[in-house]
Design brief:
745 residues; 12 helices; Ubiquitin-like (UB roll); globular; 16-stranded antiparallel barrel
Length: 745
């Protein structure tokens, strides 16, 4: 027994040396100095065992300098034998050019004169594949050619084949979702691929899918579904690597606002200010359905009130607490923040977008008091621009100034340009539409768009440019050129026009906007032999310069699928100065939305009133200034088929008034067709003929009722409208059935 114990002790001390490393021998290195390798060795270790050797081996491998590392230890001597990785002598990416080549070069680590390793190569290949997946190319392949040459060097060629982009063939919404698939499809930014889309945004893009999940969640929470949970699943990959995209939704219950509690320091906030905050809260929240938009609006209004009353260092914390019976109580905490200043705003990640564009969208600048509400609103505003796929921020203590914070913003850019086209055919003939847009032109945050519409009755081309912050004025500058030629089937004349407009726009109060403009336009009226003598006498070219302005107020609960609130506008265009026919055109309109029974019955009431009159008693307004009821204003009648008639031609009127009542309702069509159905009642009239006393002014009120159905079918989007005129004039031209297949996207 004693002999066994002695042997065990001898073996233990033999395998666990407690002597320090006295000598290091390095073998096999040619480019990497021995000192560099030796610096990785912890010489003070007193126990060189297998764990120590394994850890040291990993540490040397992690330098990426070596392809093989072997370590041995004997009699206080540590021997490290290495085989060095090759150096990249020549590097080339085959199969890419322009933007793709630039983007790939930014994300890979292997370049000429860099150390080559298989782990680096594998990581670079995965990074390239991830990049292509992010822009919709899921089947891209990368085949490397590694060619060994002398002096432990290699030539590296990456052969890249993007292949075709992966399209979204179908989008499904399943689960306890409350809303129709058609409504939800309007919320998300991606769309299905289809024959009617010549170019589209139907590529599968992981970043966009994550964005759409958030859009859906925000939509549900804006409708009162506080507990909504959303998952997206890619399924049904076909042989072409195209996808069916499924959003699984659990909406949960619908909530209402309950009690509102306000916690604020009376020693810091005046009692009258706390009372005013209570009034703001009760006005927005009391007895209302829960909505995340209302919570956001509450935050913004309290923030604006406090800032207007000279409070600068505060934090608004709104807590939403669930209770039984589908009630959300609101706890509003207004805390006094320590008085800190913003020292520096540091922005990184913007390779294309100018830093000025990002700073222009911040509610806070260097030297301002730190205000967390302004910071959160700034980040939300940046996200809404959709220039970036990812935005992060961090507040850090300033190194050079005490009681100061640095505001660090990191962004990841994404493509901001798009090309779209659509084709369609319907009761009014064929339509081809194209659009080219860039939301961040030259990285300056400016919007550029060209749209062309070509139909059997009208051709329009329009170029638009918008600078959202012209000359740092916080005001928008917009400019547009538009050319139009119309030749409607039921008229004996056609009109060509070309013109331009320059305007500005800004928010004068929350959700209320003002947009003034100036414009110039040339019109050429051409008549046929069937036109009346009065119309033929007005043929020719006219020039018009005008000053216009408009107000709009948007109080809808959602821009995509409103179920409550209103959208109102007032527009006026005054043609004076250099104008052959001085005139004034005024339009007032509003649309009111309300949930009638539940989410499936959304009612709306739309009113529009317009008039166009001459400012010179000796002249009459141009044919292009005369007013017509569109088929969305007054269904059941042809376009330009209602109002005064001259020689068999409907010539429009000086006055227009319409009222449209509409409601959605459930239908038996399977949900996968994404069918929306409507009941409607339209009422209105077009009247007034200033250029003739013998033509009837058309004072009769027209009305119609009917149903409308929108379907997404395998043939493309199809819309049907069937309207029955209730009251009409004998000269009106009916169009009870209207359909369109295909659309512009």
């Amino acid at each position: 027994m004693i002999r066994i114990l002695i042997v065990f002790i001898l073996l233990f001390f033999t395998n666990n040396s407690f002597s320090e490393i006295k000598k290091i021998i390095i073998v096999g290195n040619t480019r990497v100095s021995s000192n560099t390798i030796e610096s990785l060795v912890d010489k003070k270790i007193s126990n060189v065992d297998s764990i120590y050797i394994n850890n040291l081996t990993k540490k040397i491998y992690d330098t990426d300098f070596f392809s093989d590392v072997k370590i041995s230890y004997n009699q206080d001597i540590l021997t490290i034998t290495v085989s060095e990785n090759s150096v990249v002598n020549f590097f080339y990416i085959n199969g890419l050019k322009d933007k793709d080549l630039d983007e790939v070069n930014k994300i890979i680590s292997l370049k000429e004169n860099s150390i080559f390793s298989l782990s680096k190569l594998k990581k670079d290949i995965e990074s390239i594949k991830d990049y292509f997946k992010s822009i919709g190319y899921y089947t891209a392949t990368i085949d490397p050619d590694v060619i060994k040459i002398s002096n432990n060097q290699i030539n590296l060629i990456l052969n890249v084949d993007k292949k075709d982009s992966s399209k979204i063939k179908n989008i499904y919404f399943i689960g306890n979702k409350f809303f129709s698939s058609s409504q939800l499809a309007d919320v998300i930014s991606v769309s299905e691929d289809g024959w009617w889309k010549l170019f589209s945004s139907s590529n599968l893009n992981e970043q966009q899918i994550e964005y759409d999940k958030q859009l859906l969640k925000d939509f549900y929470k804006s409708k009162g579904f506080f507990d909504v949970q959303i998952e997206s699943v890619f399924a049904g990959v076909d042989n072409s690597k195209n996808f069916s995209l499924t959003f699984s939704i659990n909406s949960g219950k619908k909530y209402r606002f309950g009690d509102i509690t306000i916690e604020a320091s009376n020693s810091f906030y005046k009692e009258k200010d706390i009372e005013e905050i209570k009034k703001i809260s009760n006005k927005l929240v009391k007895n209302e359905n829960y909505s995340s938009l209302t919570v956001k609006k509450l935050n913004n209004q309290i923030n604006s009130y406090l800032l207007s009353n000279k409070y600068s260092s505060f934090e608004i914390n709104i807590q939403e607490n669930k209770k039984a019976d589908e009630i959300i109580d609101v706890l509003l905490k207004i805390n006094q923040e320590p008085k800190l200043l913003i020292n520096k705003i540091n922005i990184s990640g913007n390779l294309i977008t100018e830093e000025k564009v990002i700073r222009d969208n911040l509610y806070i600048t260097e030297g301002d008091n730190l205000n967390t509400q302004k910071i959160k609103r700034s980040i939300d505003l940046l996200k809404s621009k959709q220039y970036f796929s990812k935005i992060d921020y961090k507040l850090e203590d300033s190194v050079d100034k005490k009681n100061n914070k640095d505001f660090n913003i990191f962004v990841k850019e994404q493509p901001t340009g798009s090309i779209s086209a659509g084709v369609g055919y319907g009761t009014n003939g064929a339509l081809v539409s194209t659009s080219i847009s860039e939301k961040n032109f030259l990285g300056q945050g400016k919007y550029l768009n060209f749209t062309g519409d070509f139909s059997t009755q009208k051709i329009t081309g329009e170029l638009n440019f918008i600078d959202p912050n012209f000359k740092d004025s916080d005001r928008q500058l917009s400019a547009s050129l538009i050319s139009t030629k119309d030749n409607f089937n039921n008229t004996g004349y056609s009109n060509k026009s070309f013109g331009g407009k320059i305007g500005t726009g800004y928010e004068i109060y929350e959700d209320i906007f003002f947009r003034p403009n100036v414009s110039i336009q040339s019109d050429k009226l051409e008549t046929e032999s069937t036109a009346s003598s009065l119309l033929r006498s007005r043929a020719g070219t006219t020039l018009t310069t005008a000053i216009g302005y408009g107000f709009s107020a948007d109080f809808r609960d959602s821009r995509n699928n409103p179920s409550s609130g209103s959208l109102s506008y007032f527009d006026q265009n005054i043609a004076t100065l250099i104008s052959d026919v001085p005139a004034i055109t005024t339009t007032v309109g509003t649309t009111y939305y309300k949930e009638l029974i539940n989410e499936k019955y959304i009612g709306s009431a739309k009113v529009k009133i317009s008039n166009s009159v001459s400012l010179d008693n000796s002249k009459d307004i141009k044919i292009s200034d005369r007013l017509y009821a569109t088929q969305s204003d007054l269904r059941g009648f042809e376009q330009r088929g209602v109002g005064p008639v001259d020689g068999g031609d409907h010539v429009g009127g000086n006055y227009l008034a319409t009222l449209s009542l509409k409601s959605t309702f459930p239908n038996p069509i399977p949900d996968n067709f994404r069918a929306n159905s409507y009941l409607f009642y339209d009422l209105g009239n077009v009247w007034g003929v200033d250029y003739s006393d013998i033509i009837s002014g058309s004072s009769k009120i027209r009305s119609s009722t009917g149903v409308a159905l929108d379907i997404v079918s395998p043939l493309g989007p199809i819309s049907f409208t069937y309207a029955i005129p209730i009251s009409k004039a004998s000269t009106d031209k009916e169009q009870r059935f209207l359909f369109n297949i295909g659309s512009s996207f």
